[in-house]
Amino acid sequence: MANNRIDLLIHNIGTLITMQGNRETRKGSEMSEVAAVRRGAVAIRDGIIAAAGPEDEVLAQIGGLPVERKHDAEGRLVTPGLIDPHTHLVHGGSREHELDLKLKGVSYLEILAQGGGILSTVRSTRQATEEELYSKAKQSLDTMLSLGVTTAEAKSGYGLTLEDELKQLRVARRLNQEHPVDLVSTFMGAHMVPEEYKGRSGEFVRLVIEQMLPEVKRQGLAEFCDVFCEHGVFSVEESEQILLAAKEMGFGLKIHADEIEPMGGAQLAGKLGCISAEHLIAASDEGLEAMRQAGVVAVCLPATSFNLRLKQHARARRMIEMGLAVALSTDYNPGSSPTESLQLVMTLGCLNLGMTPEEVLTAVTINAAHAIGKADTVGSLEAGKQADLVIFKADKLAYLPYHFGINHVHTVLKRGNMVVSDGTLIR
After folding, report:
1. Which of 40, 81, 247, 358 is the Cys-Cys partner for 32 at CB 3.0 to 4.6 Å?
2. 158 assigned to a ligand binding site
3. What would the pLDDT profile of 86-122 be if each residue is shown by its tens digit?
4. Is the overall model pTM greater than 0.90, yes or no?
């Protein structure tokens, strides 16, 4: 080894899950291959993993290099830092007033048609100052970190004007600079047709393409572009127009596809080669096959279908059988999924989507990293990657989704720095 020291050695790990072995997405049966070892260790230098694996092998690899600090994992479970690849982190207000409507059987699309839902949050976000949005989003990001999330995606889409979209993206950029959690920004100006453009969706699409996308690109505020392809929102044709324009400008592509109705969004994701397609509750086999052939990651959001009380869930089991790469996410937002808990999502992945604990962990680590284009630096514990990891108050992986409703996190390391200790954020 070139350097002459190890900054931190985490040893006496009961079960170490590394996710080593496959540089591509884990598809189909590969999602069960988590590269778990008993009595493991992780050696860290300059915030980067120097070695990870069985403790005796790690000690042999680092040889006689001095170790500045040691941390005894006390036989606990250690995994890569969790990754949340689909959130609407920056927004104003909340929508608890819609709970009564849901309980009375009013659907998501009906609430939207009445001017609620996303449009309600748009009004709150437009009224909020940048500092207010920052403070609210930071609180949620703190919660995510305390629950083991070390990297997350953050979408805009609650401004729907050029300046308000830029406002959201500036908040995400500042959080990425100042908060331990790494954020990947996605521009989603096409989240909804704003009230002032009602009946004139074509004009709004032109606004997104001709004004919003170029300015977001000029300021370097987002890596990806997303669009909500859904009945009453943006058609397949409109979605394709926006995404093709974004692709020409150098954005990576994402799509909210087939969440409520089978619109053909999954087929469009395959056609355009999107990095990921999200929701997919109503996606057809034809759409899933198009995604499989194009290597699109299927991002399933079980907390959303749970909260909307939908009878149908994304067919994750079918996706895995077809050979797709599946990721899981909270879809944290103020309406359809107001939760920051990726641990809850892991439980729902097992109970409602029929995934195994191994598949679930793959879906919130390495596959989630691929869904946001960051698998070269995070998502697994192997030499050369960031030292992002979680020590859980458990000794078996299955215990995490089995014992739900609590926080299992004991310690979180981000770039080799301890940011959560004994379940508490280190300020």
Report:
1. 358
2. yes
3. 999 999 999 887 787 778 887 777 876 777 788 889 9
4. yes
